[in-house]
Amino acid sequence: MIKKVEMLxxxxxxxxxxxxxxxxxxxxxxxxxxxxxFLHILVEGHSLRRPLSIASINKVAETITVLFKINGPGTKxxxxxxNGMYLDVLGPNGNGFQIEEHxxxxxxxxxxxxxxxxxxxxxxxxxxxxxxxxILGFQSAGHVFYEDEFEALGRTIIVTNDGxxxxxxxxxxxxxxxxxxxxxxxxxxLPMLKAVxxxxxxxxxxxxxxxxxxxxxxxxxxxxxxxxxxxxxKKICKDGPVFHSKEVSL
Amino acid sequence: MIKKVEMLxxxxxxxxxxxxxxxxxxxxxxxxxxxxxFLHILVEGHSLRRPLSIASINKVAETITVLFKINGPGTKxxxxxxNGMYLDVLGPNGNGFQIEEHxxxxxxxxxxxxxxxxxxxxxxxxxxxxxxxxILGFQSAGHVFYEDEFEALGRTIIVTNDGxxxxxxxxxxxxxxxxxxxxxxxxxxLPMLKAVxxxxxxxxxxxxxxxxxxxxxxxxxxxxxxxxxxxxxKKICKDGPVFHSKEVSL
Amino acid sequence: xxxxxxELPGLQLKxxxxxxSGCFGFGRxxxxxxxxxxxxxxxxxxxxGTKRYGNNTPRVAExxxxxxxxxxxxxxxxxxxxxxxxxxxxxFDTSIIANIAGSSIEEYVAVAAAFNxxxxxxxxxxxxxxxxxKEGGIQFGTDPLMAAEVTAMVKRVSDLPVYVKLSPxxxxxxxxxxxxxxxxADGLSMINxxxxxxxxxxxxxxxxxxxxxxxxxQAIKPVAIRMIHDVSQHVSIPIIGMGGVTxxxxxxxxxxxxxxAVAVGTxxxxxxxxxSELIDELPSILDKYGFSSVSDVIGKxxxx
Amino acid sequence: xxxxxxELPGLQLKxxxxxxSGCFGFGRxxxxxxxxxxxxxxxxxxxxGTKRYGNNTPRVAExxxxxxxxxxxxxxxxxxxxxxxxxxxxxFDTSIIANIAGSSIEEYVAVAAAFNxxxxxxxxxxxxxxxxxKEGGIQFGTDPLMAAEVTAMVKRVSDLPVYVKLSPxxxxxxxxxxxxxxxxADGLSMINxxxxxxxxxxxxxxxxxxxxxxxxxQAIKPVAIRMIHDVSQHVSIPIIGMGGVTxxxxxxxxxxxxxxAVAVGTxxxxxxxxxSELIDELPSILDKYGFSSVSDVIGKxxxx
Lengths: 250, 250, 304, 304
Ligand SMILES: Cc1cc2nc3c(=O)[nH]c(=O)nc-3n(C[C@H](O)[C@H](O)[C@H](O)COP(=O)(O)OP(=O)(O)OC[C@H]3O[C@@H](n4cnc5c(N)ncnc54)[C@H](O)[C@@H]3O)c2cc1C
Ligand SMILES: Cc1cc2nc3c(=O)[nH]c(=O)nc-3n(C[C@H](O)[C@H](O)[C@H](O)COP(=O)(O)OP(=O)(O)OC[C@H]3O[C@@H](n4cnc5c(N)ncnc54)[C@H](O)[C@@H]3O)c2cc1C
Ligand SMILES: Cc1cc2nc3c(=O)[nH]c(=O)nc-3n(C[C@H](O)[C@H](O)[C@H](O)COP(=O)(O)O)c2cc1C
Ligand SMILES: Cc1cc2nc3c(=O)[nH]c(=O)nc-3n(C[C@H](O)[C@H](O)[C@H](O)COP(=O)(O)O)c2cc1C
Ligand code: FES
Ligand code: FES
Fold this sequence. Notes:
A: alpha/beta; Elongation Factor Tu (Ef-tu), domain 3; Rossmann fold; 2 domains; 18% helix; C: 304 residues; four-stranded antiparallel β-sheet; 16 strands; binds flavin mononucleotide; binds FE2/S2 (inorganic) cluster; FAD (chains A, B); iron-sulfur (chains A, B); oxidoreductase activity (chains A, B); pyrimidine biosynthesis (chains A, B); electron transport (chains A, B)
């Protein structure tokens, strides 16, 4: 269940170009959040909350980590929050990734700010004894983060658009480097999701989507996406942000 | 000349009920401000600046002190600023108190948040070798501030509306306790200024006025007051806030 | 004890606070945050004759102290709302107000008539002011003759009191208010959103897929207060006020301006508890400013 | 180098930034902050036929991301402005635009005619949209026939290009724009303020002595962008855009929406250097979004 909580910022780190990691303290969310869920964060001076995926939790320390890219004025302001300050947060929002018992080897594909939820998921999968392969795409060397963290989970391929680090190109270009996975999970910008789902059309997969949100809880109909039956719709904030790759129409 | 400056908050003290003293560091304003002038302060999240009188300056330490009462949302927010933070300030604004060479004994009458400019003026007058008597009115004992500071300048009479400290009543009730002054200077709420100027109709005096302001520099015509010739007007921010008691129509 | 009750046509409100249409869905999500029985009333999301998908996304954009929305009246259609949503809401001890919309007078009339079959619904809010649909909506809301006509037609078929929701995008709001009062409106609801737009600098296109959207939130409060103040002097039917309400002080300001109750929209997105908190804070705010009841405040700030 | 120049009827602007009428007085105060020669143009405070005192105080109130003002056209009268203010401003290498107002067509015409005797003035801005005076002002701004008439009459006597300043308080802004274009307007200036009100909870009265005031500042930007976007598609005369401009990104947004230049009002009160800073920042913002000149941007965000 979504609660409205005050979260103490216990650590703030710049982990890559324009990319900030915040570690937040809250018992309820740290104990209940599942991979794929997000926090809906109030930023001072801004009328709409900002959705940010949960990048990991620590049940013992009772902390939640989020990672974000400084994008517009809201994330800029959020990047100026300091240790010891509190955030007004709704969470955990949305439905997490569905994990199929029978899948053993899992491919994670993250692009840019779509990488954080992949990390939480990857950690969770490894804890469940699954094998994880990760393809992570970034703009350039300066934007790369969490490489070691993903390496600790399994084989990790880094791709940069400009080739300044790892493979050059898009995450889809790196798909040829991996084979034999049972299911894929992906999060990233819409063009990437379109390319990935098209290329992996024959595989079972789950995608995590972004859309501009109002309420973040399912009440305002801001964040709908048509379902693939050309008939219905889903709310990204409430029914998602994770969907089966065949469920919605990108 | 008015400049736009960044001022470091070097000290923040609660000095009475809902009353905050901020000591601000800035060379230019500390060297140029005269008693009666004010600062026009930008408060985060607020579209209009807040005018606050200069309560004292320290040319050596290069600091300026302002005192304010927590009134509405803007002063509430300002009261939450902490040491080490910076304020965006226009200053020094307005014209200060005119001081007549030939006046020797001077009566200062301050009410509530009208007390701060009286202190800067009183210090200045004493430095010039004048004799100062002060009547300071507050709501109640809890609101009294700067009593010792004024005592150091000369005889000081404290009046509280509810009689919980000093004399009971209004500053005008205390006027019978003083005699033989050459000129008076007053600042406080409009009803007080009206009562004071009426009662001291035969004396020479200067009043410092408040009005809601836009620009604070004389460009927007928000803060005008009719002159007593029923013909013209003055801008409080630019021509004032100090006027001769006979000059404007309260 | 401060008396928060207020009686309006068809509505015996325990307090004057209700969520605004479209900002609270059909209550399900917010019922997880607090007990909806606490609310004076609930205004449901707009109902149309048949199901609508609404506009493409993006449907919302942030603005200074406000937001733009162009949802486009997405809803499952009046029958489904009566079958699935009204029963859920009637579990709570609060009045249900149905917001009705349409592309034609016939559609408004059909939706209004359908709600006669839902005894749990206490009143209709006639949305003649939605700026986000191609047909109907705002046209009815900017032409006094059309507004009067749709009001009269709906009144003819409906057993329920009708609150007409006015658009602020007009030269003369008083004229609109008088026109619908004369046509039989039992109350007014104002204001709906101001038409606005944001352009995305990167794409060089309007950010919302619908291009324009409705501006709501604190930014528009002065416009709402002005219109309610002016209208309340010229009509004798009560006004449900809205537009930027965020704090208990805002509630008081709307009541002073002449509103008899207050709806809260955009603020729910910042704080899902806002309606509940306003109800808690209202007694002490009334007390602070010298009022002993809500009815005592209404219109006290109106200067003719 | 990014080309900031823009040519409009009667105006060869070195850049598209100018202070908005009423928010910069006659330039004296702000000339202490920076060299006014930097500005694309300066729009002076409204001039009327004879001196006006304006409304009682309080004349301004703060709102969320905006402010209300009800100055009431205080000014020393057109003759005095020509004698004392225009000469001061003509010390600077920038175009002077005179904002003219009145209570009657005769007054508008007289003021316009008077400015023929001031060769330093490059253009007129016809203020038919001031919400803060009892007579004239906004009446002319909400009725297309009256707006057209005053425009035509002013055009008849004036040697200068006339930019008509439109009120946003209308049901149909495009209709207003077309009416004044047909009547001979050389350009448009939009938007003036939205009518608003704030009620003081303690006094239980409207805070402004004039009761209502004009809402300006960032709060109204989405309304301005929408109106400029819509109007620019239906007229062929240029638009000076305004309403909440605070940042160089805002300037770009107004240009994309179809404005050819931009006026800055309320933001001067927060930051007296704002116009100067916008001029400095504009080249890099244009560059960031892939434009090499101001004229390149105009209307690029308009989708028909
Ligand atoms: C479910 C979900 C999870 C997300 N997780 C992350 C994450 O882990 N890390 C991260 O860096 N970013 C994430 N995003 C994107 C992030 O929410 C936006 O980058 C951020 O809201 C932009 O705010 P801004 O103030 O910087 O930008 P502005 O453009 O100023 O924002 C204006 C408005 O648009 C919305 N908006 C702008 N871009 C986006 C976007 N891409 N998606 C949704 N709303 C947007 C904002 O929320 C705000 O309401 C996620 C988005 C969603 C929907
Ligand atoms: C020249 C001058 C000097 C002043 N010096 C002091 C001082 O030294 N100490 C002090 O405590 N106060 C002083 N004041 C009053 C102080 O400016 C207001 O109390 C303060 O602006 C209120 O802001 P707020 O956000 O708390 O109230 P709000 O009511 O939320 O303010 C809303 C708007 O109204 C304006 N406003 C509200 N009350 C006043 C007022 N009394 N005078 C002018 N504008 C007002 C605010 O500036 C703001 O624009 C002075 C005012 C003036 C004009
Ligand atoms: C996301 C959103 C959806 C809305 N949907 C409706 C609607 O379906 N019917 C309606 O009459 N008003 C609708 N409105 C308008 C609100 O009910 C309200 O009139 C307006 O938002 C002003 O109030 P606020 O500033 O408190 O949000 C909607 C507003 C928002 C923000
Ligand atoms: C204090 C003040 C005074 C104004 N006076 C005038 C005026 O005399 N003539 C006029 O045409 N517009 C006047 N305006 C309107 C502005 O020129 C401008 O159209 C409006 O404020 C919107 O721009 P902004 O949001 O940048 O302030 C005034 C605005 C303010 C805030
Ligand atoms: S953001 Fe409101 S329904 Fe998804
Ligand atoms: S505040 Fe603008 S003239 Fe005084």
